[in-house]
Here is the input.
Amino acid sequence: MTDRLAALLPYPKSVRPQPGSFEISTETSITAGPGAQRAAAAVRRVLAALPWPAGTGRERGAAAGGIAVDIDERLPDEGYQLRISPVGARITAGGEAGAFYATQTLRQLLPDEAWRAAPVPGPAWQLPCAEIDDAPALSWRGGHLDVARHFFPKPVLLSFIDMLAAHKLNRFHLHLTDDQGWRIESQRYPALHEIGSHRPRSRISHSADPAVYEEIPHGGYYTLADLAEISAYAAARMVTVVPEIEVPGHASALLAALPYLGSVPGGRYEVSPDWGIFPQIMSPLPEALGFLGEIFGELLSAVPAPFVHIGGDECVLDSWRDNPAIEACRRELGLGSADELHARFLRQVADMLAGRFGARAVVWDEGFASGAGTPAGALRPDTIVMAWRGMDIARRAAEAGHDVIATPVVPTYFDYYQADDAREPLALGGPVTVQDVAAFAPGAAAVSWPGHAARRLIGTQFQLWTEYIRDSRALEYMAFPRACVLAEAAWSGQPAQATPAAATPAAAAPAQAACAPAVAAPVQAAAVPDWHGRLTAHLRRLDAAGVEYRPLDGPRPWQQGGSGPRRHRAGHRIAAIAAHLDEIARQPGVP
Ligand code: TNX
Here is the structure.
């Protein structure tokens, strides 16, 4: 049972095994100390949902130990101390989130059966005695899901949120709109969901190969009530939904519904059956801004989001340059280029979100690069930049004073292959291996940045773009186990595959000090058990939960690409992509 202490993922800052065990059951009382009612309620919620083995409570004479929950405001909100002795457990947390995470750790200390949805026959559950001190290094620990290229039904999102929470991830970035679909009900503009939410066919061959389509309609959207429900479900699990409406590019589905918002007068648009970058983009003129105010108003009335992603990536600006009204507007604003107008447009949307809804905007790094160095085109200072084109642009955005989230293609793009192996199902390119994720150290990368910039690195998240991910089974295959390992990088700020010495809290201090105050330093931190062994044990939990992850030694027969138009292709090689992204991210002023 003590081996469960060596199978925690993410691994806590400090784990000190102690002798003995504590039998926990439905009889175990949960009591709240002063001011700890909400924290205790979070503990109760998690435990009440577990599949407790039948008849292991009073009938079997279980010891009547309890769990005491206390708040200590000196701990960070998400931090906690967990003490398990033979007579009970004590959770001392910085806040409700800390108590929730303590209970997630506690769940990982139970048998794998605790990850099932209903009880199966088995013995009473024992917790190994231990003293655990824990807190995250990074405040933004996320998972992104593109529901525009392929739609995923609401229950899939709910179980995705469950898995985020189980790995102590706290942001769910929901990419709701793109060229291939608009996934939000609009009462004010019903054409958006009536027209924009479906396409008659979809490309199934690789984007580098001759086009082959599947002539089957694809679509779906979430009602505003669905989105409110998803957001509330996430909030109860300490996950903040970050909704994204992508502007001004990747907007073909929006424009198919409302063509007058496009930048080509009289332009014709369709919900795209293809993948890639399209020249059709929104107009930046006042009518478009007015529309966005209304549409964000509808969305944010359902999802009370403190952070709203507005896209800004991969914009082909030629149609702006070719449109006399847009050019006149640019000159009137004193802006030197269409790129500056791009940044200015994002700034106006961010101002609107802040002014009307008190929300902070998030953009992909092109939104920062397009106006960088030009005061008239600069972003709102509080806009958060997601740096997908590498850590160099992450540093530049941080130096310019923006909070930054590290989302480099390698290793956070989980739409890329998990191995260089012809058995892998069709994906964009790659590979981005689980070892690449284990070597990722967002906190350590920022150590070489100037101090003021290092403090701006607030977190990281994985990306699941879904051009080639068509259903929930494929989604789980691509997400896991890489997400499990990314969660550790996000929680610790350090690489999972660090040597034990480098992973002790003392050695990790320089990177972590910048991001979050540490929990009281442990007297003696034991070596961190090797990530591969912990992950192997963790996969048994995912088995119990029924998650169809990719086994570490490759896909199961039914997870392979097979033959036909969707057979495996090498796709875009990661080395070439990395070099290309590095090059374009280095050119100032190029979005
Ligand atoms: C780039 S990253 C995109 C997405 C694609 C993805 C495929 C970013 C901001 N834009 O539109 O789906 O690559 O990996």
Notes: The first helix runs from residue 37 to 48. The two ends are 53 Å apart (CA to CA).
